[in-house]
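Hi there. Long-time user, first ticket. I'm pasting a complex I've been working with (about 425 residues overall). I'd like to know whether the download I got is complete or cut off, because the file seemed smaller than I expected. Thanks.
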Amino acid sequence: MPQIAQLGETYASQIFWMLLVFGFIFFVVGRGMVPKVMQTVSMRDQQISDDLAAAAAARAQADEEEEAWRKRENANRAKAQEIIAEAKAAAARSTEARLGETNARLDSQVSEAEGRIATARAGALDEIEQVATEAANDIVERLAGVKVDSAAARAAVKEVLHG
Amino acid sequence: MAAEQGKVDPMHQFSIHPMFGTDGWELAGYNIAFTNSALWMIIAAVGLILFVWGGMKRELVPGRWQMAVESMTGFVDSMLAANIGPAGKKYVPYIFSLFMFILFANVLGLMPLALFGIHPFTFTSHFSATGVLAIMSFSIVLIVGFWKHGFHFFSLFVPHGTPLPMIPLIFVIELVSFLVRPFSLGLRLFVAMMAGHVLLEVLSGFVINGVNAGLGIGPVVSLLSFLLMIAICALEILVAGIQAYVFALLTSLYLNDAENLH
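Hi, the file is complete. Here it is re-exported in full:
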């Protein structure tokens, strides 16, 4: 078994080279390179978690903005409904007013016309009365030879005409 | 690997050959010749450095290589986080070096490089090498424990709720189990690697000798041994990973004792 048989002559060399090589590995690889590798890993992990946090924040903000937009949209819609209702009411009011005005004008025209008709009728009646009185006077004078007072004739005509 | 007179010596693969500096290289009177063991330590180190260096592009979206390196560091990091907690972060460089160095050593030792004339040497099959790593881990546990908790660290040997008359006995038992840790740590790796390599070598000896024995039962033995070798090669690759993992896991568990006591 060379491990024991050669121990006396080789142990110093084995220990020396082991310490030298392992020390070299420890300081160059363990202390020099491994921290850099691990730093790269932790930087990557950091970046990933940062990106995830940014994505979560962006989503939260998007949700918030959507909520705000919805609120604004609802308000706008309510306002639009209000405006429409107001416009409807205003239109109804103006229509009513115009209708009333037109009605009034028509009424006044009608009443004016009625007045004119009444006047014309009164005038016509008057004329008829006068013509009838004259005719009655003439008839009485020719038939009876009696001169009738025109006022009496008129009264008589009126009586006949109006019952 | 030496097949002298048709015999395969399964232990020959573990022998250490000085490559240069056999006579001249001394440190405080000790010979530190550059051996094939040291060569394979350096090869494992170079392989590990190349592997990690390939994953240092620091891209936001990692490529395959970077993904592999990051999964290794992430594996060690999560192991320490699970066993020690947030305080385990500072041991990542040490545990990563330990785990990857042992893993590369184990796997490189299994590579069929002998086909290309290169004989891989598994230095983790030498307790003089694994012992250094084990003692290093154990020393770190001791240093951290006494640094953080002072003499309170000895309360590690008295679990909570121990009845008063049992304390001296429990203390001794716990102390012994604590002191055995570096041996179990180093010997486990050494034994696992050595056993696998010996098994493969013995089976390959069966294959060679079976064929050399000519017609008869020999080729049958060869074929069966060869099939078994294939299966055991797969098992050994698994063991190479598991032993590296076990070494790192136990070190992190011991560090947890030092960091958090019980």
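A couple of notes from our side: Residues 2-162 of chain A form one domain. Chain A has one domain: 2-162.
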